[in-house]
Structures are given as structure tokens and as C-alpha cells.
Write a structure and sequence with these properties.
Helix content is 27%, strand content 18%. The protein has five helices and six strands; from the N terminus they run H-H-H-H-E-H-E-E-E-E-E.
Amino acid sequence: MKRPVQTLLLALMGIGLLHVALFTDIYLRYVKAGLRPLLIGSGVVLLLLGLAAAVARDRHPAPEDTGGEHGHDHTGTPRVAWLLCFPALSLLLYAPPALGAYTAARANDRPVAAQQGFAPLPATSPLPLTLTDFTKRVRQDRSRAIAHRTVRLTGFVTPAGEEGGWYLTRIIFSCCAADSQTVKVRMYGAEAPPADTWLAVTGTWHPRGTLGTRTAQAALDVRDVRPVAPPVNAYTDDLPLTPS
């Protein structure tokens, strides 16, 4: 690839990274929030490298290529190399979509860590819980404190496939989109909304298996479904944060 094109790509990648990390929340679709400083630093380095290459080229122009002894030029840019422009431009013009139901249906389920003891549940009703906390209570809390409690869970819709029905889902990043895992709770008593729809679902545990043991299914009898905007922390299983 010729030097001017390399310089342009470096500058575009740097500008694209700075754009998504400084002026938007788009970077949260691909990496955890804690990696934002690294993205900003990478963008600055790429931009500076591009500018330095451009300055060096202006000060020290490359000698004119005469084609050598063969009388023709071997330095042309391969056509496929121009495809490298698309990732850079996509960060500026059209960022790849967020992960959703398609990924969740194919990603590994996140193992729910064992918990020895549980604090008393607040008297709030409906009780906001994460999908992970709900699953832990259903399968590990021998006091069965979740029985008959009305809870509110937030996530997006993932169809259950050939078996029918649907799951409320959260995708969790350990580091970035490449290592994403899912946590899902099966929904009963309501028709499946469109895939990827973000919902706040209110209901009670769906009795299947023995509550407080691993035979219990992480499932909800739905009483109310309310569409919500995707939260800022869409790739964690924390209680949803909304833009201020």
C-alpha cells in the first residue's frame, strides 16, 4: 500500500476512535466502560502517527518512481487493501449495530456463581432485581425468600427457538464483545415481543422445580410488560442506568 494511503488510514482510525470514545456512547457496544481511556489513548497515538507520517512525507518527498529496469510499476496498491478503509469510515459514519438476540441465541450462558448466604430482601414491590440475582435466589436461596414476591427484571427479548416462547436476556462483557456471555430468564404468560425489544417485565417466579435448589428454573410468570429504552450499561447485568 502506498504511503499516502497508509497515512490516511492511520488518521481515519485515530479520528474514528476518538469520535466514538469522546463524543458518543457507541464504544460501549464493543468494550467495557473501563477501557475508554485506552481507546482515547489509542486514538491519539494513531492520529499523531498519521500526522507525523504526513509531515515527514512533505519534508522528504519520495523519489519519483520510473518503473525500474522492467519499465513498469510494481508499487500499485492492491485493490483488496482499500477494504481497510471501511472499518475506519464505519466508526465515523455508520457504527456496527449493538449485539442483541442473534448473538445471545448463540453465545455461551454465563455460569452463575455460588453464593453462601443471602441478605433479606427489601419490602419494595415490585422488587428490582438483575437477572443474575433473580437466578441465584431461585436456585440457591434455601429460605425461599423470592416465593410469591413480585419482581421487576430488565433486559431484551431473545426468542427461544424451536421450543417457542422467549427469554429476557442480558449480554455481559468480561472485556469486550469477543468474550460476551449471556444470562437469560424464561418468560411465561405473555406473547413474545419482537426480538431485541428492551423491556421491564414484572411478575412472580414460575413454579418449576424445587425453589432454592438447582432444579428450579429461572423463569417468570409475567404480569406486566413495559417497553424501555436500552440502558447506558446495556452490557452488564446491573440494574439499568438511564441517561441523565
